[in-house]
Amino acid sequence: MKQDASSQAEKFVVRFPSGMRGRITETAARNHRSMNAEIVARIQHSLANWPTVETTGQHAIPVGREEQVLLQRFRRLTPARQRALLGLLD
């Protein structure tokens, strides 16, 4: 008997902080995806854009690239979050 992809997929239970499930539901609907597809897409994006951590004890962000990584992350924030972060720095 042939198994479909979902029955072959690895499963993992996640506990969301209060309110996060609703935000994921809304975002998934806006992106025309299921909640599962939205979560997987976001994890894949995060893993693809996160600097590699070496097992030799090196930092996740290579020394000397901190400013570049911060700027990249800042630019991905919503305008409201950018303003909030700048407010914290004042």
Throw out a few tags for this protein.
mainly alpha; 5 helices; 90 residues; Arc Repressor Mutant
Quick take:
The chain is mainly α and 90 residues long. It is built from 5 helices and no strands.
Largest sheet: none
How far from one another are the termini?
63 Å
Give start-end ranges of low-pLDDT stretches: none
* Series of secondary-structure elements, N-terminal to C-terminal: HHHHH
CATH class of the largest domain: Mainly Alpha
Instruction: Please work out how many helical segments DSSP would assign.
Output: 5
Q: How would you classify the helix and strand content by structural class?
A: mainly alpha
Shape category: extended
The number of domains is 2
Which bin fits the share of residues in helices?
A: 55-70%
Q: Whole-number radius of gyration?
A: 18 Å
- Beta content comes to under 5%
CATH topology label of the largest domain: Arc Repressor Mutant
CATH-defined architecture of the largest domain: Orthogonal Bundle
Mean pLDDT: 83
Please tally the β strands and state the result: 0
GO biological process, one term: regulation of DNA-templated transcription
InterPro entries: Arc_DNA-bd_dom, Arc_rbn_hlx_hlx, Ribbon_hlx_hlx
Protein name: Arc family DNA-binding protein
Pfam family, one: Arc
